[in-house]
Amino acid sequence: MITNTRGITEYVNDSYVIKTGYTKDEVTGTRPYFFSNNGIYDFSEIVMATIQVGNTWSGEIETRNKSGVTYWERVQISPVFNELNTISNFIIIREDITEKRQLTQSLNESVENLKNITENLPVGILIVDDRQKIIQINQTAAKTMGFDSMDGAQQFINSQSYSQFFETLVQDQYHDVNSGLNVFTLEERLTVPENNISRIILKNIIPIKLNNESVKLEAFMDITAQKHLQQKEAEANKAKSEFLANMSHEIRTPMNGIVGATELLTQTKLGKEQQNILSVISKSCDNLITIINDILDFSKIEAGKMKIETFPFNLRSTLDYLLDQISFKANDKQLEINTVLDENIPAVLIGDEGRLVQILINLMGNAVKFTDKGEVILKVETVLRKGKEISLHFMVQDSGIGIPPEKVESIFESFTQADGSTTRKYGGTGLGTSISKMLVELMGGKIWLESPNPDYAWSKENPGTVFHFVLPFETDKSLTNTDQYKDKLKGLNTLLLDDHHTNLLLMTKTLNNWGIELSTSKSIEEALQLLRQQPNIGLIIADNHLLRDANNNFLKEAKKMVPHIKALLLVADPKTITSNNYKGFDRMLHKPVKYSSLFSTIYDLFQTEVPGASALKENGPAKPASKETKGRILLVEDNPINQKIAEKMLQRLRFDVVIAPNGQEAIDRITAQPDHFDVILMDVQMPVLNGLDATKALRAKGLYLPIIAMTANVLKGDREICIEAGMNDYIGKPVRLETLDNTLNKWITPNKA
């Protein structure tokens, strides 16, 4: 736009026409608004006063176009001089800045909002320059540092050194993928002596650019209260752990005497009534130990002290051991116990065998406890197999009292039972399922239950229950697998005699898996008929439940028809095997029948022994080869009762025993006679010098004879603590005679004495 010296428009370009909506004719000869004093724009005098003396004027003005639409423009008015150096015209440049102003306004609003947010954040914010000067602080930071206002804080901080306030306690660093920045995380002590401030803070430091300068953005929060709470919790947990450890020790110490004395008495000549009384004492001890172990295991898991281990183990052998543990109580109730495994499950797995056994004993123990008649079945199936990884689905099924629908959700809670009335019939702590859930989840699995049992149509009073859990394991083909010998039984014609439907079903599956040609019968008459029809049958497997109620000439008749037939008897209660009618059976297996025992027994009946099969057989108590002394033991024990019990046990196992009442006396005896003893049995908690320190002292002297911990401490990974101290092995109290014998035999060379 060009005007004359009086401000009358002489020229406008096309852009002006487009922007304002006015034609050139409409504008030419008129005075622009900034030259008019029309009441709307009252700065025309200022404009004219500026430009008429030869200066340029510029400003931002809000105006309207012909349609009345408001917009902002930047106006610059410059004088044009002629050859006489006088003003001849004014040239006016008008730029639409509406969008720029809107962006600037939005930016200003964002900055203001950010400032408000920063000032009111619940975390302290500091901006620190490269000279370690705090150049900006927010309200929370000022308050945390003990100042009433940010101005007061800023004024004080400017006169002080940054390092005066912050002392780094813990430092870490990580790379933020999203921002690409390295972020420092620190735990620091914030101290402002002038304000009597001493606090623990958690701080993040991020390097940023501010006005093209490298600065650090520091965000921190006061965690003093949390630290105090953590300290109190740690102290409480420590006190709790120490209390539980002491409680365990104090309970297990007298329990060791009771259990040991009971075991020793059972091996003496006793009358029937005395045997019954000892049986009651033994079972009561077992129940009490189970309760103690439940409470301690629960405490260890709750405190995060339970560790999961991974070692190779034979799953079938593990389940055989499990059946041994469960069978006594099941036989008392005349319950059928069975296990069934998918044939494609590898024999050897890698995982925590001990925790798996603990879970199964808890769940199967409960199944037996809450089942008065019928059966308990453990099924194991493969649900996922990928490379070396395998996930197994375990199902513990029973025909017991079931769980009411309203209790299903809470049954895994601590100290909860399905029957919570004061007249509970079954007893227990209610921790078994809770511990099982914790262990399953600790091992990376999941657990759930169904009640009633969907696989069976039990009575309304006994709807049954199924506990399910899935656990991950690993496999290794290089590990030995005794299943490689199962084809050795292929084609063996066998007659299975049993009238229990589930037993028949599961035994059939197992025998078929070994390639055995199987015929089944539910009665003696049917069995004899099958033998007449199939004289090539080489083996009879019979359940004594059927034979017990018959006049039992069955085996005699069978051998008349097939003279060379072999016979295997399955017995739930060995006390029932008294009749001469059972003579003629080649072997007898106790129920529940273990997979490995069944396999090796059948194999032994027909062929030479399977390589490695001896490891699969049922192990009985070790039988001494002679009456000679097996070794010399130094027993380090301070409790007089436990001294006597352990001494009697060791003498029963044919060891010579010397007793030391504390660790210091043990050191003195060993130092005086370093080659006299074969093994040291060392208690841990003792006066004068405890077992751990005594072991360390002996190892420091270069004495390396085997030291076995024999302790009532079982709470805080005591096995690991003992091993770290230099011990070789560990036996928890109460000590069982068989456990003691097996452990000592590991460390004493035969005939060394």
Describe the structure.
By secondary structure, this protein is of the alpha/beta class. It folds into five domains: 2-97, 2-Layer Sandwich (Beta-Lactamase), CATH 3.30.450; 121-222, PAS domain (Beta-Lactamase); 311-474, Heat Shock Protein 90 (2-Layer Sandwich), CATH 3.30.565.10; 482-616, Response regulator (Rossmann fold); 631-747, Response regulator (Rossmann fold), CATH 3.40.50. It is 37% helix and 25% strand. It is built from 22 helices and 28 strands. The protein has a six-stranded antiparallel beta sheet. A hairpin with a 5-residue loop joins strand 3 and strand 4 (70-81). It is elongated. Mean pLDDT is 81; it is low at 420-424 and 608-626.
Describe the SSE topology.
Elements lengths: L1 E3 L4 E3 L2 H7 L3 H4 L16 H8 L5 E8 L5 E12 L5 E10 L1 H23 L3 E5 L5 E4 L1 H6 L5 H9 L7 E10 L6 E11 L4 E14 L2 E10 L1 H43 L5 H31 L8 E4 H18 L3 E6 L6 E4 L1 H17 L5 E12 L2 E10 L6 H4 L23 H11 L3 E5 L14 E10 L18 E5 L3 H13 L3 E5 L2 H10 L5 E5 H5 L5 H8 L4 E6 L15 E4 L4 H12 L24 E6 L3 H13 L2 E6 L2 H10 L6 E4 L8 H10 L6 E5 L6 H8 L3 E4 L4 H11 L6
Parallel strand pairs: 13-15, 19-20, 19-21, 21-22, 22-23, 24-25, 24-26, 26-27, 27-28
Antiparallel strand pairs: 1-2, 1-5, 3-4, 4-5, 6-7, 6-11, 8-9, 9-10, 10-11, 12-14, 15-16, 16-18, 17-18
Helix pairs in contact: 7-8, 7-18, 8-12, 9-10, 10-12, 14-16, 19-20
